[in-house]
Write a structure and sequence with these properties.
Largest sheet: 7 strands, parallel
Radius of gyration: 34 Å
Structural class: alpha/beta
Number of helices: 18
Helix content: 25-40%
Distance between the termini: 118 Å
Strand content: 15-25%
Number of strands: 19
Strand order of the largest sheet: 3-4-2-5-6-1-7
Length: 542
């Protein structure tokens, strides 16, 4: 990446004499090179130990930082090890020296508590977009403050999109007399004359799912012309690869990928990555687009709303939304069928007194809500029957009476995953309705998920290999317990063991010779006459 190399060289020649620095930078890969290259330039490999700790909001940001530094410095440079799971990272720390590490405050704190990460050798701690970390809730803030409290005299490098009062307070407490670098762009976008910039619509996606989201977005919008704006080289290559798979050529002028200013008119502008400065919106306004859509991660929406001045609206991709509309239409068809048979007299008498307090439409909505609740409870009961009522199939994946199949996923609580994460990936990436997902049994190292039997093959095909919390997950059908038992029973005996001889006398038959040595005589007493040979004397003498 030539741009990153230029930024890295410029940053390396501007290593600050101040121990504490505060950067105001957009959330981009170029910014990573600008604030992290000086810190890595001060690393002394001969000294050993972890010398740079980068605290991020989540595992995704840590992975991005690691990948960016690897592209910038190459395999021979200082490696930044991403902590996507404390257990996995702990094995790396034990196998070789780790000079620089990146991860969330909670994951890094777990390494510190287990004495895997030693803080006495740390020279620089970097808070990579501290405003994102502070916005993540009280638990994230508490974990950050606990980690900073143990870092002692290490230099602080604090990076933020914007210096808010909350960020200023943290700087005052943990990075006093810090030098501020990189003023933000504050000018508002200047729009062309007689042109009003449209409301920006955003689609929430995971970073690894931008390509599939772009494909679905182009299918849904079907714009006559579109410009796809990518901020860095890898994102541009990914977007170009996606549109090539859809049948567009590199020289196609209707759908094109760009990283430079786009002044040619375009009906639709799609930001493959969210804009980070007002200047980006100003430049794209020269194309006078009719609609603007942004593919954004959940943590980027707040900044995008501030950048757009509140002119932001969510956009749902057609798959889940269409399925929801289909379900609602099915309910309306049921109501039409009931009304066609005539208005139910008993129900009318029951509801008539309520018409004095509520509108008829409100009553219908309340009745429909009760109906949906009852249906949901019925589906849950069918999907999770009592254990005694569940049939045990002879073979194949385990299924219950509700037509559900259990899938095995190689991810668990130790990877930081929650039930909501699995539900979102299965319903979103797997392309099935949420009511087709049954019980989710989340354990430490894996998860067992029940899905509708007819959807199991599609979920395995689409979700297998997906990234969840920075970890690539494997999905397969759970092997039935009875099948394992049959396999074990069919396994031949070990060659080094013969069959057990059971031809001897049955247990309890003591007719054979006694086993072992006879009991020794008691010391100091008369010998046991029962062990002597010859006829036994009668104890009762007449």
């Amino acid at each position: 990446m030539p741009e990153l190399e230029e930024v890295g060289e410029r940053a390396a020649t501007q290593v600050s004499r101040s121990q504490n620095l505060v950067y105001t930078l957009p959330h981009t890969t170029e910014s990573i090179a600008e604030f992290l290259t000086p810190a890595l330039a001060r690393v002394d490999p001969s000294a050993g130990g972890t010398q740079v700790v980068v605290v991020t909001r989540d595992a995704e940001t840590a992975l991005t930082i690691s990948e960016t530094i690897l592209r910038l410095t190459g395999p021979g440079g200082i490696e930044v090890v991403p902590v996507t799971g404390a257990a996995r990272a702990g094995r790396i720390f034990k196998s070789r020296p780790v000079l620089a590490v990146a991860g969330s405050a909670s994951e890094l704190g777990a390494l510190v508590r287990s004495s895997t990460l030693k803080l006495d050798t740390v020279r620089t701690v970097v808070l990579a977009w501290v405003d994102d970390i502070l916005a993540d809730g009280p638990e994230a803030v508490a974990a950050l403050e606990a980690l900073l409290g143990e870092l002692g005299e290490a230099g602080r490098v604090i990076v933020a999109r914007k210096l808010t009062p909350v960020v200023e307070d943290l700087v005052e407490r943990y990075a006093r007399r810090a030098r501020k670098v990189g003023p933000p762009e504050t000018e508002a976008p200047q729009m062309p004359e007689n042109y009003e910039f449209p409301i920006i619509r955003f689609v929430t996606v995971a970073d690894s799912a931008r390509g599939s989201a772009l494909r679905r977005l182009l299918d849904d919008l079907d714009p006559p012309s579109a410009v796809i704006v990518a901020r860095d080289e890898s994102a541009a290559a990914d977007a170009a690869r996606t549109i090539r798979t859809l049948g567009y050529r590199d020289d196609d002028t209707t759908i094109r990928v760009t990283r430079s200013d786009s002044k040619d008119p375009a009906h639709t502008v799609i930001f493959y990555q969210p804009p980070v400065t007002p200047a980006e919106l100003q430049r794209i306004a020269q194309a006078k687009p009719v609609q603007v859509v942004v593919l954004a991660q959940p943590g980027e929406v707040a900044w995008l709303r501030e950048l757009s001045g509140g002119r932001l609206a969510p956009m749902n991709l057609p798959g889940p939304e269409r399925r929801a509309h289909d379900r609602e239409e099915a309910v309306r068809q049921e109501l039409r069928a009931v009304l066609a048979r005539g208005v139910p007299a008993r129900e009318t008498i029951s509801l008539e007194p309520l018409l004095e307090e509520f509108d008829a439409l409100e009553l219908a909505a309340a009745a429909l809500s009760l109906l949906e609740r009852e249906r949901a409870q019925r589906r849950m009961a069918e999907a999770n029957p009592p254990a005694a009522a569940r049939p045990r199939p002879a073979e194949g994946p385990r299924a219950d009476t509700g037509g559900m199949t259990r899938l095995f996923m190689t991810i668990g609580t130790r990877d930081g995953v929650k039930v909501g994460d699995l539900m979102g990936v299965i319903a979103g990436e797997g392309g099935i309705a949420a009511d087709h997902v049954g019980k989710i049994d989340l354990r430490e190292s894996h998860a067992l998920v029940e899905v509708a039997e007819g959807d199991a093959a599609g979920v395995i095909a689409r979700v297998n290999g997906a990234m969840i919390r920075g970890r690539r997950v494997v999905v397969r059908g759970e092997r039935d317990k009875e099948e394992r038992e049959r396999s074990a029973a069919a396994r031949p005996d070990r060659p080094d063991r013969g069959a057990r001889d059971r031809s001897g006398p049955p247990r309890g038959d003591r007719s054979g010779p006694p086993r072992g040595r006879p009991p020794a005589p008691r010391r100091g007493g008369p010998p046991d006459r029962s062990s002597r040979g010859g006829p036994r004397r009668d104890r009762d003498r007449s």
